[in-house]
Every structure is written in structure tokens, then in C-alpha cells.
């Protein structure tokens, strides 16, 4: 298999010296492409390209930048099907989910195109002075390291606010899913983004990723991934006095009260947990249901889960694709073994690798419901990235909130009820960055996204995000 022609943008494109790594389809094990194994030198070249391009880009008007986004969004929508297939092939998710992620990327570009005209400073009256102004300046070179679970959407969240604010950028995709990111970057170029403004370096996190964070010319790093990796990124960034945004793990609780609409709570739990084969930072990872309705809720949930079809994401009838990689599959298998052998939990449905033609070639696992899990189980404590849902019964709202807040994470949480008092109490007392009421998982570039505690700090999206990518210069003028 020949490596794709256009892998790395800017000067680093010529510099890989032929050393590549494989990108494989997690549903079939087939080789999809080979991409350059970027080194520290490639990262330096990409940063040099971003540096050379910075002045020109910073001096274009935000509206001009926005128009490039607008054109790129149109091209992405035109090529949605091709991009969705590519995303499914490298990531594993069902085609319908891939389509909606590609649309999500286009929508992010459109949102930031709209925000372009809101970039402005202030006039500030100061006693005893002539005039005081604040002017917003781009930071310079910004960078992001992104994961494999939602590569297109997360790429949009990282690059769009930085570029619209006049910064140049270096992106390091996850090594399992660089292909959609590379294609989206080439579409931005096609839409008019000049060379050197968005650079992509493919390569291992420990080398390419770390050298990006270490490089003194990078002024801001935005990272999404595991909390442990995020801490390493924060450590390295601190010594270079860089700005950092960390979107890390989550273990979102879903609270189902006794007055909830059971049908919609069941549908919400299925989508919330099994979307993207359970590999979303804001997936429902712990479900707390009031004991008075637990039996009926679990019966309905079990029936719904048994209807889900596991398979290759390209197959139209598939509801759940494979896990993205062997590490994830082994992790999930290990947890299930522990539930059975050590925790004393009960597997309601699922719990094994499914059997269908070709299932041994991919990283498939059945959607699994577990009850009777002890409070100290890893299933309730860790960020479980996979199709495993522990269900815990609670007597009331107080107990549900206490259990929900026990986690080291605090990304999202949802409350399912018709009672406004419970909504108010939940919104006040749940310790999370995002709280959904009678839904879970919905995200949008219009609103801030991010967590508390070990889920990280800083927010993505929403109108305030631009200040994360701008410096404020104060000008005191006396005439
Ligand atoms: P990582 O945090 O290791 O990977 C995320 C990104 O960081 C990838 O681009 C990776 O590169 C890069 N990276 C890895 N090590 C370093 C480093 N030392 N310095 C800089 N960048 C680095 O997550 P994994 O892919 O290993 O997944 C493991 C677990 O992380 C999952 O089971 C899940 O729990 C959690 N996770 C959470 C996500 C979230 O959105 N909250 C997203 C993905 C994972 P490379 O791909 O080359 O290793």
C-alpha cells in the first residue's frame, strides 16, 4: 500500500524520510493506509511553517478568515458521504454516526464563521486619562493533540476558534485515526486556507505529541484524551508557561427518578451508553435508578439492548461498531472478568465477544448491562470506554446525587424527571461541567463544553472561547 500523497501540511510534508505506520480498520483488521511517523524534527518544521505564515494570517480580517471556513463547510457537506465512510473505516463507528460527526464538523466551521465579526476590543473610560482601549491580539502558534473517538468533531472544536482568532496551528491526530483529519485539513486548503496556517503532524504521542508541547514557540495547547496523558501535557506546558485547555476523562452519571418518562429514559440510556460503542467522554457510564421503578426500567432497557446489532459500521443494519483498538477490547474483557470473578456483579445481558461471520477479525464486544455492582468496583471508578453499563439502584434523589458525585471525574451528568424541584436540586448539586435534563450526550458549538475535577479545565466552544485564543493589549492614550 502506497502512503497517501498529502500527509503533512506546510514544510513538514517533505520531511518524513519514508518512515510510516499503519492505519487499520478496527472492524476487519485490514490495512487502510500508511502515514508518516512524524519525529521531533517534523514537529519543528511544522512549527516553522506556522511561524512563517503567522503574520500574514493575523493581518487578514476575521471576516476573510470566516469566509474560508464557510467555503470549507460547504465542501465538507458536499463530500459528506466519502468522509463518513473514511471515518467509519478508521474509527469503527456506524455510518449514521460518522455522517452526523462530519456534519458536526461543518457546523462548527459555520458557527465560528458567524463569530468572526464579534472579535473586538473595548473602549474604557478611565478617570484622569484621555482614552483607554483594549485590543485583542492572536497568541501566535497554537497546537492540539486529539483522540480517536471523535476525531473530526474534536478537530473542529480545536482548530476553528484558534484560526478564526488569527492564530496558526499544528494538529497531532491520534495515531489510530489520522485519515479523516488529514482529509479535512486538505479541504480547508482547498477552500482557500493558505499553506502553513494549519499543519498536521502524524506520529506517536510520546514523541511527536510531547515535542509539540515542549516547543517554546507554541503558545497554547489544547488536549483531549486520558486524564493521565493530560497531566503529562499540563506538566510539560507549565514549564514553558503555555496556556492549556484539558478535556479529559469522564464517568457521567445518569439519574433516573421514579417520575421519569421511562420510554425516553430507556432510549436515552441506550444512546447515551452505546453510541460510538461507548467511547465518548460524555457517555453514560453509571446509571442510578430509583429502586421503586428499577425492575420495570431494567426490563425495558434489557429488551432495547438485546435489539442492538453489533457489526461492521459500514453495514446499514449495524447499531454498534467495533471498539477502536485492541487495547480497548482487552480492557473491557478484563473488566467483565473482574465483575464476574471479583465484584459479584450480575451480567443482565451481553458480556462477551459476539459471534458472527468475521467477528474474530475486529474488536467487537456485545452491549452489556450489569447490576449489583459494589461501590468500589472499577466499573464505577474508572473512565470505562466501551459498551458496558453498570446499573445501581438508589432510594431517592439525595442518595442518587451522593453516589453520582463520588467519582473523581466531573464532565457531564443527566437527570431524568418531570419534577422541577428535582431538576433544580440536581443542577445545583451535581458536580459536573454539563448537566442535561431528560437527555444526555447532546453537544453543540454554541455552548461551552468541559469538566471539573479530573475531567480537566478550560472550556471549548461558546462565544467566550475566543478569549482563550487571544491576548488582551491595553492601550492608554493621552493627547
Ligand atoms: P491518550 O490520552 O493516550 O491519547 C490521546 C492523544 O494523546 C493521542 O493523540 C495520543 O497519541 C496522544 N498522546 C499519548 N501520549 C502522549 C504524550 N505523552 N504526550 C502527548 N500526547 C500524547 O488516550 P488513549 O488513546 O491511550 O486511550 C486510553 C484511554 O483514554 C481510553 O480508554 C479512554 O478512557 C481515555 N480517552 C478519553 C478520551 C476522552 O475524550 N475523554 C478520548 C480518548 C481516550 P497516539 O495516538 O499517537 O498515542
What does this 3D model show about the protein?
By secondary structure, the chain is of the alpha/beta class. It folds into two domains: 20-248 and 455-477, 3-Layer(aba) Sandwich (Aldehyde Dehydrogenase, Chain A, domain 1), CATH 3.40.605; 252-444, Aldehyde Dehydrogenase, Chain A, domain 2, CATH 3.40.309.10. It contains 14 helices and 20 strands. The protein has helices spanning 40-58, 62-78, 80-91, 95-115, 151-164, 179-190, 205-214, 227-239, 262-274, 291-306, 326-343, 378-381, 397-404, 420-429, and strands spanning 20-24, 31-36, 122-124, 131-138, 141-145, 168-172, 198-200, 218-224, 243-247, 252-256, 284-290, 346-349, 368-371, 388-394, 409-410, 412-416, 434-437, 452-453, 456-457, 470-477. A seven-stranded mixed β-sheet has the order 12-13-14-11-10-16-17, with helices on both faces. Strands 7-6-5-8-9-19 form a six-stranded mixed β-sheet, with helices on both faces. It has a three-stranded antiparallel β-sheet with strand order 3-4-20, with no helix packed on it. The longest helix is centred in the N-terminal third of the chain and has 21 residues, at 95-115. The N and C termini lie far apart (68 Å). Mean pLDDT is 95; it is low at 1-16. NADPH dihydro-nicotinamide-adenine-dinucleotide phosphate binds at residues 145-149, 172, 174-175, 204-206, 209-210, 213, 224-226, 229, 232-233, 248-250, 281, 328, 383, 385.
Amino acid at each position: 500500500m502506497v502512503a497517501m500523497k498529502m500527509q503533512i501540511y506546510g514544510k513538514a510534508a517533505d520531511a518524513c524520510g519514508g518512515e510510516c505506520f499503519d492505519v487499520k480498520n478496527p472492524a476487519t483488521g485490514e490495512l487502510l493506509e500508511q502515514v508518516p511517523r512524524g519525529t521531533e524534527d517534523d514537529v519543528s518544521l511544522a512549527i516553522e511553517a506556522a511561524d512563517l505564515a503567522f503574520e500574514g494570517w493575523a493581518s487578514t480580517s476575521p471576516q476573510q478568515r470566516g469566509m474560508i471556513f464557510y467555503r470549507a463547510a460547504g465542501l465538507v457537506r458536499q463530500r459528506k458521504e466519502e468522509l463518513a465512510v473514511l471515518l467509519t473505516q478508521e474509527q469503527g463507528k456506524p455510518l449514521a454516526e460518522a455522517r452526523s460527526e462530519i456534519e458536526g464538523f461543518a457546523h462548527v466551521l459555520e458557527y465560528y464563521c458567524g463569530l468572526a465579526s464579534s472579535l473586538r476590543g473595548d473602549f474604557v473610560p478611565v478617570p484622569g486619562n484621555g482614552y483607554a482601549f483594549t485590543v485583542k491580539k492572536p497568541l501566535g502558534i497554537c497546537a492540539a493533540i486529539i483522540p480517536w473517538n471523535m476525531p473530526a468533531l474534536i478537530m473542529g472544536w480545536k482548530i476553528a476558534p484558534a484560526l478564526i482568532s488569527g492564530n496558526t496551528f499544528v494538529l497531532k491526530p491520534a495515531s489510530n485515526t489520522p485519515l479523516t483529519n488529514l482529509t479535512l485539513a486538505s479541504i480547508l486548503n482547498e477552500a482557500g486556507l493558505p499553506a502553513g496556517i494549519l499543519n498536521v503532524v502524524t506520529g506517536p504521542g510520546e514523541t511527536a505529541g510531547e515535542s509539540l508541547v515542549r516547543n517554546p514557540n507554541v503558545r497554547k495547547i489544547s488536549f483531549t484524551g486520558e486524564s493521565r496523558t493530560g497531566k503529562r501535557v499540563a506538566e510539560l506546558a507549565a514549564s514553558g508557561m503555555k496556556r492549556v485547555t484539558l478535556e479529559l476523562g469522564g464517568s457521567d452519571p445518569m439519574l433516573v427518578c421514579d417520575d421519569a418518562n421511562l420510554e425516553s429514559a430507556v432510549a436515552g440510556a441506550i444512546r447515551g451508553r452505546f453510541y460510538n460503542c461507548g467511547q465518548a467522554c460524555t457517555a453514560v457510564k453509571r446509571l442510578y435508578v430509583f429502586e421503586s421503578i428499577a425492575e420495570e426500567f431494567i426490563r425495558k432497557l434489557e429488551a432495547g439492548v438485546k435489539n442492538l446489532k453489533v457489526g461492521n459500521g459500514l453495514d446499514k443494519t449495524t447499531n454498534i461498531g467495533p471498539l477502536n483498538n485492541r487495547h480497548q477490547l482487552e480492557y473491557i474483557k478484563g473488566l467483565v472478568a473482574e465483575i464476574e470473578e471479583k465484584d459479584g456483579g450480575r451480567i443482565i445481558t451481553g458480556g462477551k465477544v459476539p459471534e458472527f461471520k468475521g467477528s474474530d477479525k475486529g474488536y467487537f464486544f456485545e452491549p452489556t448491562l450489569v447490576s449489583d455492582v459494589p461501590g468500589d468496583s472499577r466499573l464505577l471508578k474508572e473512565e470505562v470506554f466501551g459498551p458496558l453499563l453498570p446499573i445501581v439502584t438508589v432510594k431517592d434523589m439525595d442518595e442518587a446525587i451522593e453516589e453520582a458525585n463520588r467519582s473523581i471525574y466531573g464532565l457531564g451528568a443527566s437527570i431524568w424527571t418531570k419534577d422541577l424541584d428535582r431538576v433544580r436540586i440536581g443542577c445545583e448539586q451535581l458536580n459536573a461541567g454539563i448537566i442535561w435534563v431528560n437527555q444526555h450526550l447532546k453537544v453543540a458549538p454554541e455552548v461551552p463544553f468541559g469538566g471539573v475535577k479530573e475531567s480537566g479545565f478550560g472550556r471549548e466552544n461558546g462565544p467566550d472561547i475566543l478569549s482563550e485564543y487571544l491576548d488582551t493589549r491595553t492601550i492608554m492614550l493621552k493627547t
